[in-house]
Amino acid sequence: MALYGHVLAWARSYLAAIGYYARAYDRKQLQLDNRHIQVVCIDNQEAEYNIGRAFRHTGDDVEDETDLRSGI
């Protein structure tokens, strides 16, 4: 879209070029917003994973190994 905007600007169709530049800018902003949401989701998943590992390391959420073997 931006490339076609350049072509229009080169041909001195400035109003049409502005429309294409604006659409290209909006599209880029949408991509950046989506990327930000993905990064936030990944960060949340990583935080939950790290908390789970910490609990597992301390043994708080894991039953005694003998209980697991005996089926209790």
From TrEMBL:
<protein>
    <submittedName>
        <fullName>Uncharacterized protein</fullName>
    </submittedName>
</protein>
